[in-house]
What does this fold into?
Amino acid sequence: MTAEKIERKIAVIFATDVVAYSKHMETDESETVQNLRACEKILTKLFDEFDARLFNTGGDSFLAEFSSAVSAVECAVAFQEAIQERNKADDTTVKLEFRIGINSGDVIKEKDNLLGDGVNIAARLEALAQTNGITISKGVYDFVKGKTKFEFNDIGLQKVKQNEFHAYDLMLSGYQ
It folds into this structure.
């Protein structure tokens, strides 16, 4: 048996998910889906603007690949700010909120999808993020410190499931 070559690359992975999505669906499925679609349009427009590629979705979650950590962080901030503005509008029927995790790592390219620890850790960072927040890995922090206007809070070494990593929360107050 000959194993096919595994294609790898370095990528910055952006993972986002809706907070309390199941509760929103339980309350009003149709309105929740309509509002999710509106948020997805905002997100995909920003992915185009920041030169990202959406590579996977799962209901209320979105995974994108960036070639730049700075672009990924700037996109995340722009998305959170756009969602905050959207949620202030009187005609927004379901005010969806998101968490975002960003990691940089070596990933496996499988058709149009990306797999591996680089992706898994981005998802773990998203789960650690505060509602309306952004949590990044130390690797991403090292790339963006001094290159963005943002401040970060070192939340130290985190262990989620089998992954252990150093993380930082991006401080959004003052930028909204």
The helical segments are 21-27, 29-49, 69-88, 117-128, 138-144.
